[in-house]
Write a structure and sequence with these properties.
The chain contains 5 helices and no strands. With about 140 residues, the chain is mainly α. The protein has one domain.
Length: about 140
């Protein structure tokens, strides 16, 4: 699976105290927790983006990197005490709203149309011969 943001981008985008608090560390961000949060965030995003674009994307627009960091930060903050994540929850909610708007076609990734996933035609039914043909009732 492709990550929409790297651990380095995550660390550069998040204030240090938020990197250390969720895992109780005093000196180093928890690399495994960051990687897991980015994997979870990217999987969440794939669920939305994949309904409209062929995955993996050929390029990752900056917008998606920003939202990936926000969603991953939300997942990291779930490691903290309950009730201590209101700002992060709002950023998560905003990121999910963007992804929903993307699926509805209300916003664009700015990618060429050839990277868009073909729309689903839905179920198809083929008319075949009747198995009841020629029966006497």
């Amino acid at each position: 699976m492709m990550l929409y943001a790297t651990p380095e981008e995550f660390i550069a985008s998040v204030p240090e105290h938020l990197l250390l608090q969720p895992t109780g560390s005093d000196d180093e961000p928890d690399a495994a927790a960051i990687q897991n949060a980015l994997l979870s965030a990217s999987a969440t995003m794939d669920g939305y983006i994949g309904s409209r674009y062929t995955l993996p994307l050929s390029t990752v627009p900056e917008t998606l990197k920003v939202y990936c960091v926000d969603i991953a930060l939300y997942y990291m903050m779930r490691l903290r005490a309950l009730g201590d994540i209101e700002d992060t929850r709002q950023r998560y909610t905003d990121a999910i709203a963007f992804l929903k708007d993307l699926v509805r076609g209300m916003v664009s990734l700015g990618l060429p149309e050839d990277s868009a996933a073909p729309p689903s035609a839905g179920p198809s039914f083929n008319k075949g011969s009747s198995i009841m043909k020629g029966l006497d009732y």
